[in-house]
Amino acid sequence: xxxxxxxxxxxxxxxxxxxxxxxxxxxxxxxxxxxxxxxxxxxxxxxxxxxxxxxxxxxxxxxxxxxxxxxxxxxxxxxxxxxxxxxxxxxxxxxxxxxxxxxxxxxxxxxxxxxxxxxxxxxxxxxxxxxxxxxxxxxxxxxxxxxxxxxxxxxxxxxxxxxxxxxxxxxxxxxxxxxxxxxxxxxxxxxxxxxxxxxxxxxxxxxxxxxxxxxxxxxxxxxxxxxxxxxxxxxxxxxxxxxxxxxxxxxxxxxxxxxxxxxxxxxxxxxxxxxxxxxxxxxxxxxxxxxxxxxxxxxxxxxxxxxxxxxxxxxxxxxxxxxxxxxxxxxxxxxxxxxxxxxxxxxxxxxxxxxxxxxxxxxxxxxxxxxxxxxxxxxxxxxxxxxxxxxxxxxxxxxxxxxxxxxxxxxxxxxxxxxxxxxxxxxxxxxxxxxxxxxxxxxxxxxxxxxxxxxxxxxxxxxxxxxxxxxxxxxxxxxxxxx
Length: 483
Ligand code: NAD
Fold this sequence. Notes:
Layout: E1 11-16, H1 21-37, E2 45-50, H2 56-69, H3 77-84, E3 87-91, H4 100-106, E4 112-117, H5 124-133, E5 142-145, H6 153-166, E6 172-174, H7 182-193, E7 206-214, H8 223-227, H9 230-248, H10 257-269, E8 279-285, H11 293-297, E9 307-312, E10 324-329, E11 336-343, E12 361-367, E13 371-379, E14 388-396, H12 397-400, H13 411-421, H14 430-450, E15 455-458, H15 465-473
Parallel strand pairs: 1-2, 1-4, 2-3, 4-5, 5-6, 7-10, 8-15
Antiparallel strand pairs: 7-11, 8-9, 9-10, 11-12, 12-13, 13-14
Bound molecules: nicotinamide-adenine-dinucleotide.
């Protein structure tokens, strides 16, 4: 299968925070891969803009190192040099006037103009304002903003209002890189491109849904930020919420930005407040071999959660009675992100009680090894009567799509190309983000009011025992966290 690469229009992309961690690890290597694939036109220009004083040559050296270190692909040295010719740098002060005129001088007329805000959210307003006042941006320019988009409803509203003073909603691209993952888009293709699943995609046939984003990494190295956030703000409000929306939403009339985002918004608005019996917070503890969460964040009394598991109800006709179980955490047993749709048992077993229970499961793996597995029940081969066994129908993209599947763009590079194309489908709209905070805030406030202390769990485990108990009480079981 040959992948089709359609070059985008010529563009100028300015990366504010071009010397930062995110730019070096994700944005610049991703752009290089798009360059190698032929998607970036000859005339494309990438301009790093950040606080450090540096010339073009210095920035190119930094980009070269970043591409080599963070996986620019197996491209030849020659390709890298050609890519670097399109890269330049301007030192700008987001809070002052230094560098803005020079940056403007580097931009060229008649091409797509995009500004990536890969800086702390506190600088979004300053940069947006200067883009307008120095005349760098016009009504066709696009701005890309990174997470975290606020820390609660109030701050998200303030951020939206700040951006709205300078840019129209159609110009604002709020990144949630989970939406750029191949499998997440495939989820929509599977749901809305096939007749097979959609008729069963409701409370009548689906027993429950599990969404797990498990990480093995702990918070060491970024404890300062993480401790002000926690799993609820850092993962649930954005990534898990977006996955839930795509699973639960009604079919949009068209695969178009506002049609898709309208349906996602309806899901968020249909979420019930979470009962505190149905939510478990955890924090990884120290053991003989390693420090725990509190040592990593440098606060022996921290009550921030590094794990959260909860039962969420989507109160609408489609989903009433089918719970969604969400779970995410740091320092867990394996790095694994998965959505699992667990169907109900057949209403009557013609094979008798000894055949046991056999529910179909559609498991959608986001990482590692993006792909899908459908567990179906068949007869165990061989003589000896009718014994049933569950086997997976496995669709690993890497295998099914052949060698080209390895070239599936990473989430960031796909999303940046969508910005250039002007396609907002996979970006969060302001009202979606606010609705997600409106649902998240009372949960966090409830913890604060009750003085809730997270349950300790062992690093490298499945999280606190209480999370397993929560499902057990409802006659269900979490799926195994495995890589
Ligand atoms: P970083 O601290 O590594 O880099 C910050 C960048 O901002 C630097 O290039 C710095 O020069 C620039 N900067 C700071 N103050 C400035 C000023 N006054 N004027 C001009 N430039 C200034 O940060 P990062 O980790 O790259 O994160 C950037 C953004 O991306 C943040 O909003 C962060 O929350 C978000 N984010 C980062 C990651 C990640 O993996 N690093 C993941 C998701 C989201």
